Amino acid sequence: MRTEPKLTRLDRVFARLDREPERPAHIDVPKMSRHRIVLFAATLAFYGAIVWAVVITSWLVRLDWQVMFFRPYQQWSEIHWFVDYYVVLGQRGPTAVMVAAWLGWRSWRQHTLRPLLALGVSLLLLNVTVGAAKYGMGRLGPHYATMIGANEMWLGGDIFPSGHTANAVVTWGILAYLASGARAQRWLSAVSAVTSLGVGMATVYLGTHWLSDVLLGWTAGLLILLGLPWFEPLIARAEDAIFDLRDRLRVRRHHTPAEPAGAPPVLVTPVPADRDDVAARSPRAPVYLAPGPHTTRSERTPTTPAGSRRPPHPERHPRGSSPSARPVTGG
Is 139 helix (H, G, I), strand (E, B) or coil? Predict the structure, then answer.
């Protein structure tokens, strides 16, 4: 009795990777449903409330100063080394490279550019919205504060909202946004939420951001993820345009122009070096056949070419003339 070898989990993973990939046409693209629009509006209102609370120097600003005076990096100095490494999960460069590598492999396997294009659009929105808010409000960080209890707004800073926190929400949240199954989407949403929460708390621990900066960073990143379905038609058109361009380049690369049917071949005759030989071999008509009035053969005057090798014949007379008396030879 023949038994099949038992496959390990690693063997099953590689067997799944070796399958012929297909374009995931069954995956539903998220749309701006009524539920998502309500969440987007509520998050936007919360964003405005945080900004207003900081502008008027409310209780939220006083909480920022209390956390800053607590100095978490001195209270729990034994975890400082770990937080220094963990906060890298919110830096745009390393996280974008890692996520882009995964989404690039997924795009190649599934024959679609949507994962990479969605990542690019989300990062572009992050740079525009968060960057504009940072430089527009110009808040100084805890290490550069000038007056105790002040909101430190419009002083040339760039820390409100927290870019690390917003980047962590968008970069890791895009994995959950692009998940193909409900179970994977739930798990990735939980992982991205915990990761972005930890990155925000790490910046507060290190003293690089106020607590309100982190709250606004979470809100800014969530707004981008909630509003990303509005850009799905643009992503689809961009993908179609890129694939059309690729197909045209392939056709142009492999297409050789065919000669027109029935075209006679062109023969190139080499020119001899000797000009006399050219005149002798020339296929052109003789000189006496050149265009112009011609005379009949009987009207032409016989001429003897100069330098003729034929000896003169005394008895040869031109045609049409009467012969003279011939000498009589004796018989």
Answer: coil
**Residue in the block written with tokens 């099953």:** 12
DSSP for residue 233: H
pLDDT tens-digit series, residues 248-298: 888 888 765 555 555 555 555 555 555 555 444 545 444 444 444 545 444
Rounded distance between C-alpha atoms, residue 43 and residue 37, angstroms = 10
pLDDT digits (tens, 9 = 90+) for 38-66: 999 999 999 999 999 999 999 999 999 99
**What is the reported pTM?**
0.69
Of 221, 118, 215, the C-alpha closest to 168 is: 221
What the block records as the tokens of 42 is 């509520």
Peptide bond into 30 cis (omega under 30): no
The residues, ordered by sequence, that sit 6+ positions from 175 with a Cβ below 8 Å of its Cβ are 99, 102, 188, 192
- Give the Cα separation of 237 and 171 in Å (integer): 23
Q: In b/e form, how buried is each residue of 111-138, taking b as 16+ CB within 10 angstroms? A: ebbbbbbbbbbbbebbeebbeebbeebe
Q: Which residue stretches of 18-113 are H helix?
A: 34-55, 59-70, 72-75, 80-86, 92-110
d(CA 318, CA 322): 9
* Cβ-contact 145, 152 below 8 angstroms: yes
Under a CB-based contact definition with an 8 Å cutoff, are residues 173 and 132 in contact? no
Instruction: Give me the DSSP letters along 4-20.
Output: PPPP-HHHHHHHHHTSP
What gap in Å lies between CA 318 and CA 328, rounded to an integer? 22
Length, in residues, of the chain: 331
Q: How far is CA 310 from CA 301, 304, 307, in A?
A: 18, 10, 9
| Dihedral over Cα of 40, 43, 49, 51: its sign | negative
Residue type, 73: Y
Cis bond before residue 260 (omega within 30° of 0): no
